[in-house]
Amino acid sequence: MQSNNLKPKASAVVFRFVRKNLWLFGLGLLCSVLNTAFNSLTPQIIRMTVDSVIGSSELPQWIQRTGIAQFAADNTKAMLLLAAVAVLITAILSGVFSFFARLNTAKASESSIKALRDELFGHIQKLPFSWHTAHQTGEIIQRCTSDVEVIRNFISAQMVEVFRISFLIVMTMTIMFTMNVKISLVAVIFVPMVMFYSFFFNSKISKRFMSADVAEGVLSSVVQENLTGVRVVRAFGREQFEIDRFDEKNIAFSELWIRLGHMMTAYWSTGDLIMALQVLCVIAVGTVSAVHGEITLGEFLAFVSYNATLTWPVRSLGKILSEMSKTGVSIERVSYILQSEPEHDPPQALTPPMDGDIVFDHVTFGYENQKPVLDDVSFTIPAGSTFAILGGTGSGKTTLMHLLNRLYDLEDGKGTITIGGVDINQISRAHLRKNVSIVLQEPFLFSRTIGENIGIACESKGREEMMEYVRGAARSACVDEAIENFANGYDTIVGERGVTLSGGQKQRVAIARMLTQNAPVMIFDDSLSAVDAETDAKIRHELKEKMGNTTTILISHRITTLMQADRILVLDNGRVADIGTHEELISRKGIYQDIYQIQMNNADRELLQQVSAGDSTESR
Ligand code: ADP
């Protein structure tokens, strides 16, 4: 998946969700700053206590004015208690602000991430079919889960932390410099060193993180494909092959993480060493200064304390910076989806009646970077007729239907498709798809009840009315008996959480689902292939009765399915080989006659065909 340079920056795409909660983030940051400020008071209280209460230095002027100096001189114990209370109060205030900082940041980040997730999922619904076929499901899932999680971590923890730590460093360094420039210089000199080291490291590991993410996507895709194709794996005894394939990707994935681990270890150990050196230098210079009387004992303790509060945040900033490279990669990957061009209709898109003739006029089409699949195809499907398409595998039958449904669009100058005289490019996609319904050879059923699966198109109606439609449709699709035989009837859950339907049952449920849509154009794309010839004929009879003015398009390899159609198109390698009624086509030499003879004149073959169709109906 490549990003497009002309589009807005990836970070801008993702951070617009943060902007919506900016005031909450601001509140969180303010509380965070106050928490840090109160924390930094403790070393000052310790310094004053050591120097002025235990030692002999004078308390600062502003404290003397309160009369506490006199009190301190008389009551050392009470002063110590007062200092302890002051430390306690600053700790409580710091804790309270820490609580509100976390609370507000959590609210703001969860709300931002929820909005991001919603938009991501909503956007995926609008992306063209071609986008979905061009991207692996496992990888898309990874972008919507792991990558979003990385961004969530950044927004909820790291973003505010970067500001808080920067404030802490500036504030602590300012206090330290006002106390003693020499020791502060020793402490401060290490800060840019650690920062530079982090930046340097950060840029180095960014690429590794990207490869690790890609490898994780590949691994998820292997697992996902294996789980989806579990039947094929078992049927062909490919378990070991699948294990080896997974192992190969798993090794590649692990090796990438091991290399990443090596780099991280080197980074952390070197970082530890630098920070230990810093502490050592500050203590050494501080001790010498204290011995020479340049600083008081209290100041020395405050220095050590401030230096300690600086050590971890500086390290932690390094860690955040290194993780930010991962966040950057995740932001790129998520914004790639958000920036992918969705399907959209022009504002003046039409919603005409869809019960007119369907005309393919000089249609030429090829999938991306491939030779044409359809070559100058022209034909007319009269409104209300039954039109059949016959052709070998890969001859372009499904592609014709993809174009009619606008799952793919024709390029300019490569022909037109019209319904009732209106170019389908002018028609709103939603309107087109609502009116041109399709049943696929391998239909997909949701993990819901059979009733809900069939009634998807009429869910807005009340339950009783919906179930009436559902039962009627199931009867027409000859699947009512099979459904009623299940213990829970129409409430039987299908898919992973429920019963497994046979190929033929699934196809018939999908046909019933299409019937509830009541569209003026219905396409059966090899969708009776797993149904035995007898049921196939029964369903077609039922449909003919029910459909009335519906334009029906049948795609099949089986001549018995097609022969009663008003017109039959024979497609050969993306070109129209012939077109006519069954009688016309069998009367002339050509592909149709050949297939007819193979399928119909050979009784043994027909028998075999019926048996195999019956087998596949029951196959699971
Ligand atoms: P049929 O339905 O007649 O079996 P299709 O229309 O499915 O044939 O496919 C026609 C040709 O287009 C085949 O060579 C197939 O490999 C190719 N094809 C189908 N779908 C895609 C796609 N999404 N991307 C690229 N090529 C495709």
Q: Could you name the key traits of this structure?
A:
4-stranded antiparallel beta sheet; alpha/beta; 2 domains; elongated; about 10% strand; ABC transporter transmembrane region fold; 6-stranded mixed beta sheet; disordered C terminus; single chain; Rossmann fold
Describe it.
The protein has 2 domains: 7-338, ABC transporter type 1, transmembrane domain (ABC transporter transmembrane region fold); 358-443 and 513-619, Rossmann fold. The protein is built from 23 helices and 10 strands. The chain has helices at residues 10-19, 22-39, 41-54, 61-64, 68-74, 76-126, 129-134, 137-179, 181-228, 230-235, 239-291, 297-339, 397-404, 429-435, 450-454, 463-476, 480-485, 503-517, 533-547, 559-562, 582-587, 591-600, 603-618; strands at residues 358-365, 374-381, 386-391, 416-419, 422-423, 436-439, 521-525, 551-555, 567-572, 575-580. The chain has a 6-stranded mixed β-sheet with strand order 6-7-8-3-9-10, sandwiched between helices. A 4-stranded antiparallel β-sheet has the order 2-1-4-5, with helices on one face. Helix 1 (10-19) crosses helix 6 (76-126), helix 9 (181-228) packs antiparallel against helix 11 (239-291) and helix 9 runs parallel beside helix 12. It is elongated, with a radius of gyration of 37 Å. The two termini are 36 Å apart. The chain binds adenosine-5'-diphosphate. Adenosine-5'-diphosphate (ADP) binds next to helix 13. Adenosine-5'-diphosphate (ADP) is lined by residues 133, 367, 370, 373, 391, 393-399.
